[in-house]
Task: inverse folding
């Protein structure tokens, strides 16, 4: 069996950058890898980004799981504990996106735990600059009214 790759995100208003991030995450695991994606809870998105997501967590999870590179999508823990997710998923690799500095910091702390054995990989930015984030898409929609 191949590597288990873990990726995380809010995935509110799916866009090309999300798809490329997940494709590259799966590719980072090599042949026969399995990509498990943790989708942030509504409460977590609101706490981290200062606003509620447009799409509810169960719909965001289902949409992410329907994407070709994703083998399974799960909802994150209520308390945003990366350690709980690592224990549950047992990843060989954890990928973080270009804009996930806080998640990267949490993963770097967790990697110090001698019980954990995984590699951390940062995935670069994808997509046209004007549409490479959900917030930019929301702004474009507002300005086109």
Result:
């Amino acid at each position: 069996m191949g590597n288990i790759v873990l990726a995380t995100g809010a995935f509110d208003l799916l866009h090309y950058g999300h798809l490329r991030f997940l494709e590259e995450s799966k590719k980072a695991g090599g042949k026969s890898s399995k990509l498990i994606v943790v989708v942030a809870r509504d409460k977590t998105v609101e706490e981290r980004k200062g606003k509620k997501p447009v799409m509810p967590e169960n719909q965001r999870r289902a949409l992410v799981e329907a994407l070709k590179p994703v083998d399974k999508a799960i909802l994150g823990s209520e308390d945003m504990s990366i350690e709980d997710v690592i224990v549950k998923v047992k990843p060989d690799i954890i990928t973080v996106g270009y804009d996930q500095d806080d998640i990267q910091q949490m993963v770097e702390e967790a990697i110090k735990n001698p019980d954990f054995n995984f590699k951390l990989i940062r995935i670069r930015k994808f997509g046209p600059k004007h549409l490479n984030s959900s917030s930019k898409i929301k702004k474009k929609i507002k300005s086109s009214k």
Observations:
- The domain at 4-143 is CATH 3.40.50.620 (Rossmann fold).
- The mean pLDDT is 89.
